[in-house]
Amino acid sequence: MVDEKAWAVITVFVVGVVTAMDLLGGVPMEVVLIVGLFAAVLLLEIGVLVLGEIRDGMRDAR
Q1: Could you tell me which residues come within 8 angstroms of residue 15 by beta carbon, excluding any fewer than 6 positions away?
Q2: Which pairs from 52-58 meet CB under 8 Å and 24+ separation?
Q3: What pLDDT digit, counting tens, does each position of 3-62 carry?
Q4: Among 39, 33, 34, 52, which Cα is nearest to 7's?
Q5: Torsion sign across C-alpha atoms 48, 53, 59, 62
Q6: Which residues contact 14 (CB under 8 A, 6 or more apart)?
Q7: Torsion sign over Cα 21, 23, 24, 29
Q8: Residue 1: pLDDT over 60
Q9: What is the value of pTM for the model shown?
Q10: Residue 28 parent element (H or E)
Q11: What are the helix and strand counts (H, E) for the chain?
């Protein structure tokens, strides 16, 4: 679970930095779109992993 949280924090930080640089005009739009797509896929994957762990925990509780 720690790895997923670390990836989420890193992703949010990178998206924030790229967004700030885009607002300042230092990054091409393609980079912003690629980083945003990567962040969305990564966070979706983390959500699926968390839901899987919740499901496994519920199965063990029975």
Answers
A1: 35, 36, 39
A2: 53/1
A3: 667 777 777 788 788 778 778 887 788 887 887 788 888 878 777 877 777 777 777 776
A4: 39
A5: negative
A6: 35, 39
A7: positive
A8: no
A9: 0.58
A10: none
A11: 2, 0
Contact indicator for 21, 27 with CB cutoff of 8 Å: yes
What angle (nearest 5°) sits at the alpha carbon of residue 40, between those of residues 14 and 51?
115
Q: Can you tell me which residue has the tokens 């839901």?
A: 51
Find, among 13, 59, 47, the residue nearest to 21 by Cα: 13
Give buried/exposed letters for 18-43 (b at 16+ CB in 10 A, else e).
Answer: beeebeeeebeeeebeebeeebeebb
> Can you tell me which residue has the tokens 């899987």?
52
| Type of residue numbered 56 | D
